[in-house]
Design a protein that fits this description.
- The chain is of the alpha+beta class.
- The protein has two domains: 121 residues, Zn peptidases (Aminopeptidase); 116 residues, 2-Layer Sandwich (Alpha-Beta Plaits), CATH 3.30.70.
- It has five helices and 13 strands.
- The strands form four sheets. Strands 4, 6, 8, 9 and 10 form a five-stranded antiparallel β-sheet that branches. It has a four-stranded mixed β-sheet with strand order 1-13-2-12.
- α1 runs antiparallel to α2.
């Protein structure tokens, strides 16, 4: 839509609160920071029957169960995990409405997370292959829609920008409170901006001081909780990034 063109944007900064990083801390990583994400839908179609006569059916629930198990072999056997992490998750399964009826179809929803384009292509191909061939072997069919509704690219922190702005992060939170962390498999729509202009995305600690990260409520759960005093550091950091970048640009 041209929002980055008029006026011309030279760099972009973003942050996300984190409920498992202690308040007063920042975390970052140059290059690939957060995973690309695509959702998918698999529709397994079989042949319905009464539950008392399963030999008359092609059971889509059984086929879907086999697909779920087989999908978990993709990451463990096809991805070189010493290079990058990856995730294939099924988060929803819907099929049937009574205990004594084998339904005609089952729908599954899932997500793929990758940290490289090569891994994304490999997993996309393997998800389709595993679902379609598993269903075919049972006399059923599987329609794979991948991506289904969303596709986020990898959140990539410009290496040069990250290096030059690290001092701003450290000035804001203190050197000891700015943490270099491994890549994470969460995803972020900031990634679309970072495809257009050099970007730096980082995490802002929101976990109350003294709390154990292992017991802190993760995001997107009822247990999620943050200390909102963290927002002050977020504002300070953004201001320092903007002013320091402006000074760097004059050099």
């Amino acid at each position: 839509e041209g929002v980055l063109e008029n006026p011309k944007v030279e760099a972009i900064f973003g942050l996300h609160i984190n409920s498992q990083l202690e308040v007063g801390s920042l975390s970052y990583r140059p290059a690939g920071f957060m995973a690309g994400a695509s959702d998918f839908k698999i529709t397994v179609k079989g042949k319905p029957s009464h539950g008392a006569y399963p030999w008359l059916s092609v059971d889509p629930i059984l086929v879907a169960s086999q697909i779920v198990v087989s999908l978990q072999q993709i990451v463990s056997r096809n991805i070189k995990l010493t290079d990058n992490a990856a995730v294939v998750t099924i988060g929803a399964i819907n099929g049937g409405n009574r205990g004594n009826i084998i339904p005609e179809q089952v729908e599954m929803l899932g997500t793929v997370r990758t940290l490289s384009n090569e891994d994304e292509e490999l997993i996309f191909n393997r998800v389709r292959q595993v679902a379609e061939k598993t269903a075919e072997a049972a006399g059923a069919t599987a329609l794979v829609e991948l991506p289904y509704t969303i596709r986020y690219p990898v959140t990539f922190n410009d290496v040069a920008l990250t290096k030059s702005m690290l001092a701003s992060l450290q000035k804001s939170a203190g050197v000891e409170n700015v943490l270099l962390i491994p890549s994470v498999t969460g995803s972020e729509d900031f990634s679309f901006y970072a495809q257009k202009v050099p970007g730096l995305f980082f995490r802002l600690g929101g976990m109350p001081k003294g709390k154990d990260p292992k017991t802190a409520g993760p995001h997107h759960t009822p247990q999620f909780m943050i200390d909102d005093t963290a927002f002050k550091l977020g504002v300070i950091t953004f201001c320092n990034l903007v002013f320091d970048y402006a000074e760097e640009s004059k050099k």
